[in-house]
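New to this. Please check both lines:
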Amino acid sequence: MIRQISVFVAAALLLVACEGKEPLYQEQGYVFGTLVEISVYGEPEQSARQAVSDVLQEFQRLHNLLHAWQPSELSELNAAFAKNDSAAISGELVTILQDATAFSLQSNGLFNPAIGGLVELWGFHSDEFKPVQPSEELISKWVSANPQMSDITIEHGRARSKNKFVQVDLGGYAKGYALDRAAELMHKHGIHNALINIGGNVLALGQHGNRAWRVGIQHPRKPGALATLELHDGEAIGTSGDYQRYFMVGTKRFCHLIKPSNGYPMQGVQSVTVLTHGTRAGVMSDVSSKPLFIAGAKDWREAASRMNISEAMLVDELGKVHLTSRLQKRLEFTDKNVQLQVEP
């Protein structure tokens, strides 16, 4: 039996319910193929509404810039790569591609946006994807081609790839980049206390009244939260899970997170969560969870170290929770029977 899941239902982190009649403005949208939730605390409704409107417009602009399969500047670039041609790109896309290339090198290739062709091969380049199982020959063809972000060269505002199999998919980068842009826009509007959630990647600004923002981390196999924690000013949390975009064939789950070395959806991991800080907390929360997920339960800690992540958690295929001691101090598990393995 093949089963298809709506993307945003399981992907979003949960904002813990607020008490009382506090000045909290909230709005939802749908972009990047997922649910967006924005909360602004302590501002007049008109000011909050305008700031949120500008953020949602920016999200839509980035969606139109970075979409991997609908018409966009990125999809036009991918079309040029496939024809062994070059394409003129904006300065913003130049910066994004260079940044993604640096992250790919840092992760030793576990974060590899150049494998968009493999993601498409598995049927995940569709708003309502039809589950497919590619032939071993097709998968082997793409893996042997070994598309890498380092295959891309940019000169005088034009990008070219020496490898026509490079198809850039920034699905593991765009949400985090958008969070950082949202923070910039909120500050521009004089908004100091807000929570921005893009399908499970959440960035906190300021706090919720006299307390920190409290969010819940989605349980990968049950409704509701696996754990909750407080997010402080400038912190972000990101979760990658095999429950977000996937299909089932019998009892086997095929998710959208593809292992570059073999071309198959990653097995053995249910979810990975990272907590990040600093001026680029958004993009780090999005990018860093992917190498840990692909590294798997055996090597996730090494991948975390490589990405300079000290607060992380992995749920393996049996539901056992592996986490760093620093993140353990921040979490309150809703399931008191969960099996924990704490690592330094």
Observations:
- The radius of gyration is 20 Å.
